[in-house]
Specification:
By secondary structure, the chain is α/β, with parallel strands linked by helices. The radius of gyration is 31 Å and the shape is globular.
């Protein structure tokens, strides 16, 4: 048995060995852990309304006697448990699915208190799967009528035990808590001390005290997160990278081509006249023509359009990073169709003209091939060779691609994870573009960078608009550029929400557009029919549209379970206009660019999140004609209706991303892996966005003055950072 904060949880008053095992399931092993096991909400028992006042759609707390408990099987071993709870004003029904153990607990209770969402029932209103606990009949007056904390629990651990354990830890161990934040910082930010804040967050004396306590704990959570990111940024800035001669290139001063002929690898792969193919000789001759041509003149020749002001600004921001000796880590965000590939091409051109190779890694073969076609169109007239590396390449083609990358005759590689496979070697990789970063694991991104010459610059691109609060928490160690402007001539996509019974009218509209020479997408949430999921299947819809609705048109089918060659054939027919209507799954979400497609119908749109709906909608509106997106969806809930309303109201991806964050929360927006890394117990990225900005500015000022947090006042903060992330090492400055 240890003393103070390290006291084993079983020795805290009211716990014991049995409940200690349950506490361990939720990560609580010591009295100190109990102090930081914070309430997720509070129950105000000072004024619990009569049951008769509960109305469907309300979140309510009710108190009453358990009148009747019954459990009945409903199907295949599933059990529905119902309990009638009543007070002097009326009764309500509480229901649980597949929790038969609750029956005995309810039968042993006299009175209970329950919390949940009321919905209309056939005889009585109901609360499904409520939070509940038994209360002692003698517990009356001040002992009951108070604000009570509600803690996160695990099965078998009652709220009463959690409250008693936390109270025991507060009574005996709170005095051992040391405040890691220096007094000067607390005063500057008008924050209360940690001991006071912990007591008030568990048992607030007033609403004002609870708000002040929560504010202090939220700031500390955000500060640790932002300090980690700020220290990583400072560490990266100290690394030695490639200083690209941007100013010389802009002035038209030729720069020597980097070669590795002096190295063993260079000697093995150096090109000779005998080994060069006619294609190699063509690129060699074209490359010679570049001498003395200013970089921006080459860009004008390369791009078949004039860049927007936003694209121009972002390119110059990247060039500023490239010219520095520290390795670049920059995130470029741009809405669907904003022209990120053109920005990446301008940056790759500067790297190639400096004598380095480039690599662009995309998450899917469809997207990789899309980038390859675009970059090949841009670069080949300038004498720059682009290679495609994807898994489906024939053995001979793959071997030749490997050779051209190793000997430097190919300056740009575009591919999927095939780029990081064993056998892929670059002569002088100096610039890496990672598209849709969130679809790659950390190790995959590191693997492509490790193939670089020295420490290559990294440009991360995403077409998924990310709310500012998330960029500050997930990508805070990256510099961020935003392409916030669409190319001129692009007309906003008109979006309409239709109910399933309005399909006939949708089909008529699609026919009108196809008759005008346009093409259409129909997107389904699943490939084939499934008994467990009542949703439109692509295969079934394809059969229906082909045989009875659009019999005079060619209707194609595309989904992820098809063979790569079949997918390629379908996409090529759609691009060429041979297929007028394409029924697909979300395989078309990224990387499909058919300017003539001007209408998208999304079936069962209620089954897609806002971000995915926005990405899908971005497959149309890529030409100069008016485009449409039709969302076919039942609106069985307020959340679905809100999503449909947002999609109809705006095409601004960043506004949509903010709404998505507010509706679904950061975990669902980012995905499980990243949301887990947020490590936030109290702070909320939506509710506390202003405090996040404050913490970010404070962290940046701290690290600017003390990059290694080496000052004595930061000793406890350094320890906290190491506790939070075992692989986190603060930089050492000489």
């Amino acid at each position: 048995m240890s003393s103070g904060l390290a006291t084993e949880v079983q020795y805290v008053k009211g716990v014991g060995p049995r409940f200690a095992q349950l506490f361990k399931k939720i990560g609580i092993e010591t009295a100190g852990d109990l102090l930081f096991h914070l309430p997720r909400r509070y129950q105000d028992r000072r004024d619990i309304p009569p049951i008769a006042k509960a109305r469907p759609g309300q979140l309510v707390t009710i108190r009453g006697r358990v009148r009747k408990v019954e459990a009945r099987p409903i199907s295949k071993g599933r059990v529905l448990l119902r309990a009638i709870v009543e007070d002097s004003s009326g009764a309500i029904c509480l229901t649980w699915f597949n929790q038969p153990w609750v029956k005995k607990q309810l039968e042993e209770a006299d009175q209970i208190i329950a919390y949940g969402l009321v919905k209309a029932g056939s005889h009585l209103d109901e609360i499904s799967a409520p939070e509940w606990e038994a209360i002692d009949t003698e517990e009356e007056g001040d002992a009951f009528a108070k604000i009570v904390p509600i803690y996160p629990l695990t099965e078998g651990l009652p709220q009463k035990v959690a409250r008693r354990a936390v109270q025991g830890a507060l009574d005996t161990c709170l005095s051992f808590v040391e405040d890691p934040l220096p007094e000067s910082l607390l005063q500057a930010q008008k924050l209360r001390g940690l001991q006071w804040s912990l007591r008030q967050i568990h048992h607030p004396e007033s609403e004002e005290a609870r708000v002040l306590a929560r504010r202090r704990i939220v700031f500390e959570e955000f500060l640790y997160m932002q300090l980690e990111l700020a220290v990583r940024r400072a560490e990266t800035k100290q690394e030695l990278g490639i200083s690209f001669p941007i100013h010389q290139l802009e002035a038209g001063v030729d720069t020597p081509t980097r070669a590795l002929a002096s190295t063993e690898e260079g000697k093995r792969t150096k090109r000779t006249a005998d080994s060069m193919t006619p294609q190699d000789l063509f690129f060699e001759e074209e490359a010679k023509k570049r001498t003395g041509e200013p970089l921006w003149d080459q860009i004008s020749r390369m791009l078949p359009f004039t860049m927007t002001e936003a694209q121009d600004r972002v390119v110059r921001e990247v060039y500023g990073d490239m010219s520095l000796p520290a390795p670049m880590n920059r995130l470029v965000q741009g809405d669907v169709g904003a022209g990120k590939t053109a920005v990446a091409a301008c940056c790759m051109l500067a790297a190639v003209r400096s004598g380095y190779q480039c690599a662009l890694m995309a998450p899917t073969e469809i997207l990789a091939e899309q980038h390859y076609r675009n970059l090949k169109r841009y670069f080949e007239p300038l004498g720059i060779q682009v290679e495609l590396l994807v898994g489906k390449l024939a053995s001979k083609d793959r071997k030749n691609a490997y050779l051209r990358l190793a000997n430097g005759s190919a300056q740009i590689a575009v591919g999927t994870h095939a780029l990081i496979q064993e056998g892929v070697n670059f002569q002088s990789l100096g610039f890496v573009v990672v598209d849709e970063q969130h679809r790659f694991g950390v190790l995959q991104r590191k693997a492509i960078r490790d193939k670089g010459f020295g420490n290559p610059d990294v440009l991360v691109m995403t077409a998924t608009p990310i709310p500012r609060t998330l960029t500050m928490t997930i990508f805070g160690d990256l510099d961020i550029s935003i392409i916030d402007q669409l190319p001129p001539g692009r007309k906003p996509i008109k979006t309409h929400h239709k109910r399933p019974f309005e399909r006939e009218g949708v089909y008529r509209k699609v026919k009108e557009l196809v008759d005008q020479g346009r093409q259409a997408y129909f997107v389904c949430p699943m490939v084939s029919e499934n008994e467990k999921m009542m949703a439109q299947a692509a295969e079934e819809l394809h059969r229906q549209l082909e045989s009875s609705v659009f019999v005079d048109y060619k209707v194609g089918l595309l989904h992820g379970q098809m063979k790569p060659a079949d997918k390629d054939a379908v996409m090529e027919q759609f691009r060429s206009g041979e297929i007028q209507i394409l029924v697909a799954t979300t395989v078309i979400e990224v990387g499909v660019d058919v300017p003539n497609a001007s209408v998208m119908v999304i079936e069962d749109a209620n089954r897609f999140g806002l971000a995915q709906l926005h990405q899908l909608r971005g497959r149309v509106g890529r030409g100069d004609t008016q485009s449409y997106c039709i969302l076919i969806a039942d609106t069985g809930s307020d959340e679905v209706m809100r999503r449909m309303d947002v999609m109809v109201a705006t095409t601004d991806g960043f506004k949509i991303a903010e709404e998505d964050l507010e509706i679904r929360g950061p975990g669902n927006v980012l995905g499980t892996e990243q949301s887990g890394s947020l490590d936030l117990k109290v702070a909320d990225l939506v509710q506390d966005s202003k405090m996040l900005e404050v913490a970010r500015q404070v962290a940046m000022r701290i690290v600017e003055k003390d990059p290694a947090l080496s000052g004595s006042e930061w000793a406890k903060v350094r320890n906290k950072l190491r506790e939070r992330r075992s692989d986190f090492a603060l930089i050492t400055v000489s």
